[in-house]
Each structure stands twice: as structure tokens, then as C-alpha cells.
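Much of the work behind modern protein science is quiet bookkeeping, done one molecule at a time. The protein below has been through that process, and both of its lines are reproduced in full.


***
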Amino acid sequence: MTELTGQQIADQAPAGWVYLLGGLQTRIRTADFAAGLAIVDAVGAAAEAMDHHPDLDLRYTHVDVRLTSHDVGAVTARDLRLARTVSGIAADAGTATECATVSRLELALDSPEFGAVLPFWGAVLAMASAGDELRDPFGVLPAVWLQESGSAEPRQRWHPDVWVDPAQVQPRIDAAVAAGGTLVSDAEAPSFWVLADPQGNKVCLCTWQARTTGD
């Protein structure tokens, strides 16, 4: 299977799905836990029939679904096919897929010599190294990536990257500014925007857009 680009995924994904940090995601609202469990059962049966298995997170009021082709390490056409099937299951259950409330958190460590500290964080978090990233083998903890920075003090060493649907960027910026924050930079938009809280702590809002790979 061939890795799809972010633009290809956005063009072909069903309504209510968003591409976030290497996976295609959606949220299905449910009336209660039993309704969510029924949807999980139906998705599980469909996935078995397709021999392609999603990551499912069952909660009392919703089910989160994340799709990626693990053998490729990216989203492929088989993920789009399963996404369409999952959307049909949601519709048959009287609900729908949505992605306005879906986001994914990644932590970034800024260091002038990140290679010197990567093994430490890998050991503490029990994560496997993949280049400049640390990934939880069970997919529960946020990914951690390390980037080179200057050494001038004071500096912020850790910052969160929040991956969202491109349609949600402006509403989140507006809400952050209304809450006392500042838009620090949009120079890298639409790839990411840098914001700061009233004390200067920074965060990036990230999307799949304007990236050279599927990341």
C-alpha cells in the first residue's frame, strides 16, 4: 500500500474525519456506554472482515477511532475504506462521525544538544526512539519529539504541540486570545501557529497542511 499525503487524505476522507499526526481520526457520540459498546462491536466485526484493525477508545459518551496502516507506518487507501465503513456504522446507529472536538497532543523538548538528553527521556518514559522522536509502543502517552534550539537564557524548554483539524485553528486562536493569550507568530502557517499564555509560555497549533510528507 502507498502512503497518502495530507492533501490526499483531506480530499478523500469521509465527513467527520481528520488527519492528525500520522493517523485518521474521528469521534462518534453515543447516548450511553451500551450504545458505544455496540458500535465498537460492529466496528470490530467490520475490521476483522477487512483484516485491518483500528485503535478504539470507548468512553461513556463517545467512541474515538484512529486509523493507520501499521505495516506502512502511515495512512493508506485501506484506512479510507475502513473510515467509510465506520461512518456507515455510525449512521446506522443513529449518530455520526465528527472531528471538531478531536485533537492530538505531542510534546516538544527544545535543546541545543537534544541527542544528549534523548536516551534519558526514552528511559524515563519507557519509549522507543525513532530518529528525533520518542514513541509509546502502546500508543497511550503523547509522542515526544526533540528539536535543536539556541542556548540563550531564559528559554522555554518544553512546549506542547496540539494537532487539530485546520477548520478549528482560527476558533482556537480566537478563544486563546480572548482568554488573555497572544498570537506570537503565524510565519509557518498553515503548518503551525505559535501562541503564548499571559506569562509567555508557548504552544503550537499544528495541522497537516504545507508539510512535505504525510506527517
In short: The longest helix spans residues 33-50. The radius of gyration is 19 Å. The first strand starts at residue 18 and ends at 20. The CA atoms of residues 41 and 47 lie 10 Å apart.
